[in-house]
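Contributing new records

If you add data, match the layout below exactly. Sequence lines come first and carry their own label; structure lines follow with theirs. Keep one chain per record. Anything else will be rejected by the validation script.
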Amino acid sequence: MKIKGKVWKFGDNIDTDVIIPARYLNTTDERELAKHCMEDIDPEFAKKVQPGDIIVAGESFGIGSSREHAPLAIKSSGVALVIAKSFARIFYRNSINIGLPILENEEVYDLVETGDEIEVDLDKGEIIVGDKKLKARPFPEFVKEIINYGGLLNYAKEKYL
């Protein structure tokens, strides 16, 4: 799967309360969560993000609580992929569970700014920034399938029910 999109750059230690503020956790409606995604760090994010855009972040993206609301808000806002130097493990797993692709790469962050366009080949684990080709670990086949089905529940329904 190839993704080409505009970058939204965020720093280190972006926690789940920044991704989706706790005051909106009284709903699981994806459209409602998307309206408030990243609003405490960038009040215009939800209005400006476009389907296929890519979040690039620093260290420890998704730290904090283990709620699935955070990756769900990101995916529902139209973001196609998150690339960070590192992720909180529970955020990483929750993202895969809902079908939001995420990649770890140390180099991309220093090479891009918000508004830049990058291309990613998830199958190869390749990130293209300008004339540079960077590597990220590609997903194992079963994780690719989970993402392609739109999440773990859809994957399990298709495979086992």
